[in-house]
Design a protein that fits this description.
The complex is a heterodimer of chains A (368) and B (346). In chain A, the strands form three sheets. Chain A has a five-stranded parallel β-sheet. Chain A has one domain: Rossmann fold. Chain A is an alpha/beta fold and 368 residues long. Chain B has 346 residues and is of the alpha+beta class. Chain B has two domains: 134 residues, 60s Ribosomal Protein L30, Chain: A (2-Layer Sandwich); 166 residues, Phosphoribosyl-aminoimidazole Synthetase, Chain A, domain 2 (Alpha-Beta Complex), CATH 3.90.650. Helices cover 29% and strands 23% of the residues of chain B. Chain B is globular. The N and C termini of chain B lie far apart (70 Å). The chains are: A alpha/beta (368), B alpha+beta (346). Chains A and B meet through helix 1, helix 2, helix 3 and helix 16 of A and helix 7 and strand 13 of B.
Chain lengths: 368, 346
């Protein structure tokens, strides 16, 4: 299939691997920011094909994984409200809150629907004027433009029965938080290609300069990822720390201007709590005051005090790259995709789920 | 008013009423006017409590399956074709030539009669194509809201033609795994209709009987070890079951997996993996290594298996596992599906 096969091509991958082997002279640690990249890396076995000097650490870029437990609880409580149609992307349904998840709420009678676009949720609201429709607006900057567009559309249509539960997060503050940790081992970043497709690279120059780390905007197919790794390693070996784009077919330095305008119009930067990482200043997006009518958090009462994470889950250490999933005592035993203790085991983009799905043999062979 | 007036009973109209399941005149009408004409055969005709059948000498295979697909109609089939082919294919996976089916229909009050006629016509047509006859049946009607239009249930009997025992425990190191055609079409076709997705080239379900192809392999003397139809959970789940029962490693070759461009594209858009998507007209055959080329050539010479491929090899292992040699040369584990496959955010 065009635009797919060529980026999954074995020969091209081998060429990049050879180039990387030639470049590497000493150990380097890179972090791929996005869960989609983690998924590809583990799925195709890329990390095991790279030279042993290179370590890849899996970053916090899975929106499903970092959505805080109190927002999941909030979503479940809203979904259970009589008369509400709760619409969500599919992989949020299985994320465990403190006592339930959206799939269980659906089984118990809540009207929870999977949609592929927030615009579908707007259409549901139009078709059901007597019901309240709430969309779970989750994601990084990648999904923000579509969610902003949904709010603009609902506003234009003067819908009074549509609102969104906002859990948007932003990548650059998370990178800064990881880099400012005294335990940080990361020497270079593969930035999330689709986040930068929307936002461009402007926000990353300051990070690269301030922390002296190369940041290479990278795609998601195996050949894309190897391309990004090669560019990051070249910078490290040459002592450079710049922002470069290894995903030129999607990313322009200025990003997607109409998409950015929509986000800017609807959302403003807010502080956000990340599951596993805690509070990070200015790391989220919230609805601007003039769109407050579309804010589900204001429409529905808080279900109770925020719940605590499972003490057995080391998601925070995994999401910061301080531990590999396999180093968790609960991995594959008390914590599995069927019974996840924490979010990285739930989404297919979560680091723990990726290791569980594709690496169980290695886990079984590893010394316990 | 001149005393009590006995109301004239309403005709059935153009939809299923609760009375169609009441055992009275409407039930009889439903069976005699809607079901019997399409499915007529000497064993069914007496409309007795059960069918009395002639069976060839040998061993019988017997299977049963329920069908609850939504939507009822999708490109390439409907719940009627599924109900026939699902059971026929389960018999074929036992190495049996399917012979007879039962058909149970649970209808929801308010179902348009036109929909029922369409489903019954599909059952009749699929049965003819699979060379089986529906010899006994049953209908029930449930209140509106208590069903999903139509639930179907079929049981089937066939006579075993395979000479060797078939099953996961017969699988041997070195065996080749063949698949009879491109994977994932049924699941994606149904999902596309369910989610209102329109593709430039509509994806058509692969729903079809596979018994003829299986019998051809048996007649050609191919050494078969195990047959499995990758329905719910797709190829990955079927192989995982076999690997764990047989205690072997099954190594898939990603580059050899037959997936059409349409299905590959739809799966990319939906965030699904074709390995986990259901097929309803494909089968996996574990074949002795020395017969693999011949079996594959035979399948590919048939119109219904032109897209067949050799996709995996059985290797020794201490515990059952399915792995995949990826297109770019890495190796990974291919796990059983956990819960339903959920579309991803991004």
């Amino acid at each position: 299939m065009k635009y797919l096969e060529e980026y999954r091509d074995g020969a091209a991958a081998q060429e990049y691997l050879a180039a990387i082997r030639k470049l590497v002279t000493r150990p380097w640690t890179l972090m791929e920011v996005c869960g989609g990249q983690t998924h590809s890396i583990v799925r195709y076995g890329l990390d095991e094909m790279l030279p042993p000097e290179l370590t890849l650490i899996h970053g916090p870029g899975c929106p499903v994984c970092v959505t805080p437990i109190h927002l999941i609880d909030r979503a479940v409580a809203i979904a259970r409200t009589p008369g509400v149609i709760f619409a969500s992307f599919g992989d949020m349904l299985r994320v465990p809150g403190s006592s339930s998840d959206l799939l269980r709420a659906r089984a118990a009678g809540a009207d929870v629907r999977i949609v592929y676009s927030p615009l579908d949720a707007v259409a549901i609201a139009e078709a059901n004027p007597e019901r309240q429709v709430v969309f779970f607006a989750v994601g990084f900057e990648t999904t923000a433009p579509a969610n902003a567009t949904a709010v603009l559309l609902a506003s234009k249509k003067r819908l009074t029965n549509f609102s969104i539960l906002v859990a948007h997060v932003r990548v650059p503050p998370a990178i800064a938080a990881i880099l400012s940790s005294p335990f940080c081992k990361v020497q270079g970043f593969l930035a999330a290609g689709h986040v930068c497709t929307v936002m461009g690279t402007g926000e990353y120059h300051d990070l690269a300069a301030r922390y002296a780390v190369p940041i290479v905007v990278t795609g998601f197919e195996p050949v894309d990822i190897l391309h990004g790794v090669a560019m990051a390693v070249r910078q490290l070996e040459e002592g450079r720390h710049e922002v470069e784009i290894a995903y030129g077919r999607a990313v322009r330095p200025e990003g997607n201007l109409p998409a950015r305008q929509a986000v800017e119009e609807v959302f403003e930067v807010v502080d956000r709590t990340w599951r596993g990482l805690g509070g990070i200043p200015a790391s989220g997006l919230g609805l601007r005051e003039r769109f407050a009518a579309f804010d589900a958090e204001r429409r529905y009462p808080e279900p109770g005090p925020p719940a605590a994470e499972s003490p057995d889950c080391i998601a925070g250490l995994v999401l910061q790259g301080l531990k590999k999933p396999r180093e968790c005592g609960a991995f594959g035993t008390r914590c599995t995709p069927e019974h996840p203790l924490g979010a990285p085991m739930v989404s297919s983009e979560g680091a723990c789920a990726a290791y569980y799905l594709y690496r169980r043999r290695a886990a079984a062979a590893a010394p316990s | 008013m001149s005393g009590l007036v006995c109301p004239v009973p309403l005709g059935p109209g153009e939809q299923i009423l609760l009375a169609h399941g009441g055992g009275g005149r409407l039930t009889r009408d439903l069976i005699e006017k809607e079901l019997l004409p399409a499915l007529r055969n000497p064993a069914l005709e007496p409309l007795a409590d059960g069918a009395v059948l002639d069976v060839p000498a040998g061993r019988l295979a017997f299977t049963t399956d329920s069908f609850v697909v939504q939507p009822l109609f999708f490109p390439g089939g409907d719940i009627g074709t599924l109900a026939v082919n699902g059971t026929v294919n389960d018999l074929a996976m036992c190495g049996a030539q399917p012979l007879y089916l039962s058909l149970g229909l649970i209808l929801e009050e308010g179902l348009p009669l036109a929909d029922l006629r369409r489903v019954v016509a599909s059952v009749a047509q699929a049965a003819r194509a699979a060379k089986v006859v529906v010899v006994t049946g049953d209908t029930k009607v449930v209140e509106r809201g208590k069903g999903d239009g139509v639930f179907a249930h079929t049981s089937g009997v066939g006579v075993v033609r395979a000479k060797d025992p078939l099953g996961a425990t017969e699988v041997r190191t070195g065996d080749a795994v063949l698949v009879s055609g491109p994977i994932g079409q049924h699941g994606v076709a149904v999902m596309a209709v369910r989610d209102g997705l329109a593709f430039a080239n509509p994806i058509v379900s692969d729903c079809a009987p596979v018994a003829d192809a299986v019998m051809a392999l048996i007649d050609a003397g191919v050494t078969l070890r195990c047959l499995r139809d990758p329905t719910r959970g797709g190829v990955s789940s079927a192989l995982n079951e076999i690997a764990s029962q047989a205690g072997v490693e099954i190594e898939l070759d990603e580059a050899a997996l037959p997936v059409t461009d349409e299905v590959a594209g739809a799966c990319e858009v939906l965030g699904l993996d074709p390995l986990y998507v259901a097929c309803e007209g494909r089968f996996l055959a574990f074949v002795a290594r020395e017969d693999a080329d011949r079996a594959l050539a035979l399948l590919r010479s048939r119109d219904d298996c032109r897209g067949a491929a050799r996709i995996a090899t059985v290797k020794p292992a201490s515990a059952g596992i399915v792995t995949m040699r990826t297109r770019i040369g890495g190796v990974r584990v291919v796990d059983m599906l956990s819960g339903e496959q959920l579309p991803r955010i991004c």
